[in-house]
Amino acid sequence: MPLALVATGLTVERGGREVVRPLSFRVGAGEALLLTGPNGAGKTTLIRAVAGFLPLAAGTLRLEGGEDEREIGEQCHYVGHANAVKANLSVAENLAFWAHFLGGHEARVDDALEAMALGDLAQVPAGMLSAGQRRRVGLARLMVAPRPVWLLDEPTVSLDSASVGLLALAVTTHCAAGNIAIAATHLPLGLDKACELRLGVALEAA
Amino acid sequence: MIGAFATLVGRDLRLALREGSALGTALGFYLVVVAMMPLGLGPDLKLLSRIAPGILWIALLLAALLSLPRIFESDFEDGTLEALALGPLPLELVAAAKCLAHWITTGIPLALMAPVLGLLLNLELAAYPVLVATLISGTLAISFLGGIGAALTLKARRGGLLIALLVLPLYIPTLIYGIATIAAVITPPGDAVAAFLILTAISLASVVLGPLAAAAAVRAQLG
Questions:
Q1: Which of A136, A142, A140 has the alpha carbon at shortest distance from A177?
Q2: Nearest residue to B31 via CA among B59, B3, B72, B1
């Protein structure tokens, strides 16, 4: 069965308020879904609910063609506002840790470094990197262990335009291999085959 | 799964080694608190000798308490905890790995420092081996129960004080049986072996139950 992430009537509440209204979508293999909308529209909430951090108030979420015995979150890579990068480890050590922990191969670390143009910084402690460089290390984590679904929450924050290009290339490559990406973003990622889901303002004045 | 567990413990040990300051703070705090006791209580060697085990135990609890927030805090702040939660390792084992690393990097060094501080308090010679044995066993409970408090206070501002309130009561059984073991050795009669076995049983139960509660707390904090 080809991969597809299917949401039906998905609703997420935060503090008793519906932040994500009943929402149905289907993202098939090789597709990228861009979540857009103003601040407070529920982009982060939706992504965190897909990752399994937030419970669904109603509706269902299925990953067709995934591994049934593993939860959806375990088949996702999640990049949130923080980068999950340890300042006291070098860039290569950070990625090697994730490769081992997530069950990837250490050999992929070099590819990931290259994909995010971090080769020259591999031995530098991550604490000495700029915000944009650290973001790139955080994104390189996606590539050290293969997972079918990428969940990216504002992945372009603090990236320069060249790095946004690298990210777009990485997402395109990921999707071209028959995988899925969901990204919340304000900037266009420059993806060819991306559908856009515009979320409305959920936080209305009561 | 064992590989991921070992990787996580190894990373935490390496980070603790590189940061260093956290262990230094705990050891320094332990030294200062114990060193102040003779100053506050006066140079009555008999009195000091009698209360030395209690002081060494309580000061160690306080020193360990200082380092508890470290178990989850930095991973929570830099987003690592979210990525760990989506990893192949159940969150319970993630919590266990982090508590184990805390025990190795803080519990054991504190327990090994205790006999040195015993000299300051005129601790009886016979009590040294049993002091170290009870502390090594007891610090296991301190780290694994401490993980619960550390996880519960992740989002709380000034969580350190809250941790003390949450966790110190949980340490009471450990403290009682730790002291009981030492007392039985110094002033017979008393069954030191029985007390030590109960102490160790409490520690082993903490190793099993602590991570379950800590993982539930982390899940709630991530939501």
A1: A142
A2: B59
| Residue of A109, A96, A115 lying closest to A163 (CA atoms) | A115
- Beta-carbon separation of A89 and B14 below 8 A: yes
User: SS3 of B117, please?
Assistant: helix
Q: Which chain B positions have a beta carbon within 8 Å of A52's beta carbon?
A: 86
CA torsion, points B102, B103, B104, B110, in degrees to nearest 10?
110
- The CA distance from B164 to the nearest CA of chain A, in Å, is 27
Determine, for residues B78 and A100 on separate chains, whether the beta-carbon distance falls below 8 Å. no
Q: Does B77 touch chain A (CB under 8 A)?
A: yes
Sign of the torsion angle spanned by Cα atoms A44, A50, A54, A59: positive
Task: With beta carbons under 8 A apart, name residues in chain B contacting A51.
Answer: 82, 86
- Per CATH, is A4-198 categorized as 3.40.50.300? yes
Contact B79 A138 (CB under 8 A): yes
ipTM: 0.86
pLDDT by position in tens, chain A (length 206): 788 888 888 888 888 888 888 888 888 888 888 888 888 788 888 898 888 888 888 888 888 887 877 888 888 999 988 888 988 888 989 999 999 898 877 888 888 888 888 888 888 898 898 998 999 999 999 989 888 899 999 888 888 888 888 888 888 888 888 888 999 887 777 676 677 777 775 444 33
User: Is-contact A205 A187, C-beta < 8 A?
Assistant: no
Q: How far apart are the first and last CA of chain A?
A: 44
Nearest CA to B184 out of B170, B168, B197 is that of B197
- Judged by CB atoms closer than 8 Å, whether chains meet at A52 and B15 is answered as no
Q: Measured between CA atoms, how close is A26 to chain B, in angstroms?
A: 22
Q: Where are the domains of chain B?
A: 2-222
